[in-house]
Design a protein that fits this description.
GO terms for molecular function: iron ion binding; iron-sulfur cluster binding. It comes from Rhodopila globiformis. This protein is α+β, with helices and mostly antiparallel strands. About 20% of the residues lie in helices and about 20% in strands. The protein has a single domain (about 5-90), classed as 2-Layer Sandwich (Alpha-Beta Plaits), CATH 3.30.70.20. It is built from 3 helices and 6 strands. The protein is globular, with a radius of gyration of 14 Å. The two termini are about 10 Å apart.
Length: about 90
């Protein structure tokens, strides 16, 4: 059995709540260093930087680890909620 983290994460499933993302990046002119760091620290790769240098999120695949919530708690650049019941990540255990 492989121990690669990507292969383990691939075992999870995700229920997309179309049009109702549970995490949003608030409108910003210039992202803080904290917000920019999420492009590399989000374990699900949900964050990216667009051509204007702004940080965007596609929350599909989010593992609800809370990293982005904690990292941007002081800057207030993120609106974070858990997904509605029945949506979001479905972890594979074992
Ligand atoms: S909660 Fe974790 S997995 Fe989800 S977007 Fe934030 S850092 Fe990524």
């Amino acid at each position: 059995m492989s121990n690669r983290i990507e292969e383990k994460l691939y075992q999870n499933r995700y229920m997309v709540d179309a049009g109702r993302p549970h995490i949003k990046v608030r409108e910003h002119a210039v992202p803080s260093e904290a917000l920019k760091s999420l492009v590399t620290t989000c374990p699900a790769g949900c964050y990216s930087e667009n051509e204007q240098g702004k940080v965007e999120i596609v929350a599909d695949g989010c593992m609800e680890c809370g990293t982005c919530r904690v990292v941007c708690a002081e800057t207030g650049e993120i609106e974070w909620n858990y997904p509605r019941g029945g949506y979001g990540v479905l972890f594979k255990f074992g």
